[in-house]
Amino acid sequence: MNTFKLQIVAPDRIIYDGEATFLLVRALSGDIGIQANHQKLVTPLTIGKMKVEFANAQPRFAAITGGFMKVGNNTVTVLTTACEWQDEIDLERAQKAAERARKDREAAKSQQEMDQAEIRLKRALNRISVAKK
Question: Which residue in 29, 49, 52 sits closest to 41, CA to CA?
C-alpha cells in the first residue's frame, strides 16, 4: 500500500511524525480524506475527529480542535491548536468539561459568552465522541 509522510504538530508537542496510508480530517468545508500522492492543498481545519491509517497497524483516532493542513510532495502537515489520541482522552474530565460548558452557555449574559461556551461544548463533545469510538 502506498504511503505518505505525515506530521501532526501541536504547540506543546509533535503528535506524530511518520508514514501513513490514509488520513481523514474535518475541514471547514467538510471531511477530507488524503492518500499518497494527493494533489496540493492548504485548508483550515475545525473541531472534529481525525483518523490515521497505517500500512501494518490498526488505525488511530484523535480529537483535534482546529488548525490547518498542508498537502504537497507526498507530505501532509497538520498544524493543530490541540490534539489528543483516543487513548489519551480522560473521558470523565471531558464529560465534566461538557457539563460546565452547558451551564456556562445557559448563564451567558452576552453573545460572546454564549459563543465561547458553545465552542468549549463542541470541543468537549468531540473528545467524548472520540474516546467512546
Answer: 29
Cβ burial, residue 20 (10 Å; 0-12/13-18/19+): buried
CA atoms within 13 A on the CB side of 72: 6
pLDDT of 73-117, one tens digit each?
A: 999 999 999 999 999 999 999 999 999 999 999 999 999 999 999
Nearest to 128 by CA among 90, 75, 99, 77: 90
CATH 2.60.15.10 fits 4-86, yes or no: yes
The CATH architecture annotation of domain 90-132 reads Up-down Bundle (1.20)
Residue 47 has pLDDT above 90, yes or no: yes
| Domain ranges (residues) in the chain | 4-86, 90-132
